[in-house]
Amino acid sequence: QIFNQHNAEAPNLEQAFHRMAQMEPNLDHDVSWFLLPSYWAKMIVALISFLCFANSYDGDFVFDDSEAIINNKDLRAETPLGDLWYHDFWGSKLSSNTSHKSYRPLTVLTFRINYLFAGGFYPVGFHVINIILHCTISVLMVDVFSILLGGLQFSNKGRRLNLAPKSSLLAALLFAVHPVHTECVAGIVGRADLLCALFFLLSFLGYCKAFRENKEGHTFSVFWVLVSVILGAIAMLCKEQGITVLGLNAVFDALVINKINLLELIRKLLYKDKSLENAGLLRKGLLFRITLLMCGGAGILYIRWSIMGTGPPAFTEVDNPASFADSLFVRAINYNYYYSLNAWLLLCPWWLCFDWSMGCIPLIKSVSDWRIIALAALWFCLIGLICQALCSEDSHKRRILTLGLGFLIIPFLPASNLFFRVGFVIAERVIYLPSIGYCILFTYGFSLLSKQAKKKKILAVAVLGILLINVMRCALRSSQWRSEEQLFRSALSVCPLNAKVHYNVGKNLADKGNQSAAIKYYREAVRLNPKYVHAMNNLGNILKERNELHEAEELLSLAVQIQPDFAAAWMNLGIVQNSLRRFEEAEQSYWTAIKHRKKYPDCYYNLGRLYADLNRHIDALNAWRNATVLKPEHSLAWNNMIILLDNTGNLAQAEAVGREALELIPNDHSLMFSLANVLGKSQKYKESEALFLKAIKANPNAASYHGNLAVLYHRWGNLDLAKKHYEVSLKLDPMAPGTKENYNLLRRKLEQLQKKGG
């Protein structure tokens, strides 16, 4: 609603605006809710949104945080800032075939700033920023909802008037406490959605500012339209959904600024009505502004595609099984079922899960499946709302319903599978922006019920109850996101058929050393998804460590048969074959792994161990050297080179390798120990002693360190110090090989010396 006032001398101008506004249907008139000043409303929304997610502030890095943050080289200072513009969200090159094409450089930049200020990977700072972002967005929602629900109107001083203070407060509270937002706030990777939403809203509010009358009397400002486009581009650089704000701005312009009746417009277009120009399209500059939005959007998309390439990301069937279905009918019916589940999560966010893929939602393959009812219910509601939005004689109702549906549907389009395949079945994070539309529709529905209800206070208490339940649900869900163990276990009751859930629970148990329990969950993951090669690989690894080699070999062989380029499984298969003393097969498996992953230092290390067992010393040294070239901090490869050269009598070469290794890894006590042994044999006792003592300071409970230092002192003639360290070594490990014999030899020698002295 735009009112232009040119009489500057009119008394009580703002009151006049309010009186004019009251002539229009007012949503607040029938809403039994709290009427608060704007700053109090925003403070309450900020406080409640903070309380919902405050307990996530000291959570760990969980789930996707590992890949997007801990393992992402783009966060480290040694990676040039310019690389962020050519890498995806996970730090891979956009040109790579394995890239997910998630182009979010500004989000990664904020992670990098977090890492820089924290001085490392400390999750508290990351979580605090996410909570602050959600609180900020929730406060902005008060202004956004006041425009969407009450219309757009400015005073003669340029101050925007809030014509729906009660409704906008209720809608903002619904948004702030919605449990489906937990993944975005408590999961650090969700910052992409938060930043996208922040600039999305700023773009929308900037577009609204374009219609504030300036001193020259212009009806809109091109400057603010362009600012809105730029903010939309920034939103897209945080997450792909951000570009949809330009479409919503166009819808808002048509419905609120130009007050277009869509049904009437469609009729005029169909019948080529000559009065089309009088519909407000040209008179108020709508076509010009839409052209600006379209050109801006096209330019943004062109730049994005030129950077990331036009090739679609590569996803697998387990990520999104419906998109791989051969039948168009099966694809369409399952996509619509996914939409209904997303709608249900907005209506009843009780069953939440970190991952909905891998069999969590079985495919609907025929119309006899009872889940078809969900599709019917969804489209029954949508068609009803669309009919009301188009056909209602109440322009106020048409505007609110159309804007509600617009904010519900348009931001969801990039996740709908309609334009391209997405890498998930359902993702709670992508509902963050569409939930704005849900809050509009809920608030409007509440106002209609309030209008009909005789006891409005009971209805208000019921809504307060919903808000309170959502706050408690947010707090509970936030606590589940604090650690991987709680997060993964919480999914078992929601998605018991999801193989990835069982896999993640098993991996978490294995990382904590509980192999027996991990085996149970890995087996269940493989049972649920017989082609789950990562579960087979991890299960095979545990069985290998438990010396159940034949079953481990069967699993790993099956994994590489299903996925022939699975380098890690080939390497692990080689380790098992080596343990079974099938050396030729093991060597072949190692080289196959290296063929599929050229830069594979761990595989070169294991290949070197195989060659060492076969006494192919030159080949072993070459393999370990390759491992250290690919990964200079590969301590085990350096150590094995030193030990092999030491054992074969190449002391000078062993010393040179040891010094080279310590230059690269100066604080590695195992390297100090190995080099100290070599220096001792070369009779460089003083330098050897210094390295032994440094190694013992770093790891004082290593019996071998004390034992070998004792041997050094024994050779050197420092018998008292030798005795002391022999005794420490035996105290730490009474069964230490050779130490007891050396200690007994030393004692006899000391006794002989005492007798001679006596």
From TrEMBL:
Broad enzyme group: transferase
Residue ranges of TPR repeats: 499-532, 533-566, 601-634, 703-736
GO process terms (BP): endoplasmic reticulum unfolded protein response
Molecular-function annotations in GO: dolichyl-phosphate-mannose-protein mannosyltransferase activity
Domain of life: Eukaryota
GO cellular component, one term: membrane
Cell compartments where the protein resides: Endoplasmic reticulum; Membrane
Record bears the keyword Repeat: yes
Gene3D superfamilies referenced in this protein's UniProt entry, alphabetically: Tetratricopeptide repeat domain
InterPro entries referenced in this protein's UniProt entry, alphabetically: O-mannosyl-transferase_TMTC, TMTC_DUF1736, TPR-like_helical_dom_sf, TPR_rpt
Chief place of localization: endoplasmic reticulum
Pathway: Protein modification; protein glycosylation
Pfam families named among the record's database cross-references: TMTC_DUF1736 (PF08409), TPR_11 (PF13414), TPR_16 (PF13432)
Keywords linked to the UniProt accession: Endoplasmic reticulum, Membrane, Repeat, TPR repeat, Transferase, Transmembrane, Transmembrane helix
EC number: 2.4.1.109
TM segment ranges: 33-54, 131-151, 188-208, 220-237, 243-266, 286-305, 372-391, 403-424, 430-449, 458-476
Membrane-related topology note: Multi-pass membrane protein
Protein family membership: Belongs to the TMTC family.
UniProt-recorded name of the protein: dolichyl-phosphate-mannose--protein mannosyltransferase
Species per Swiss-Prot/TrEMBL record: Falcunculus frontatus
Lineage summary: Eukaryota, Metazoa, Chordata, Craniata, Vertebrata
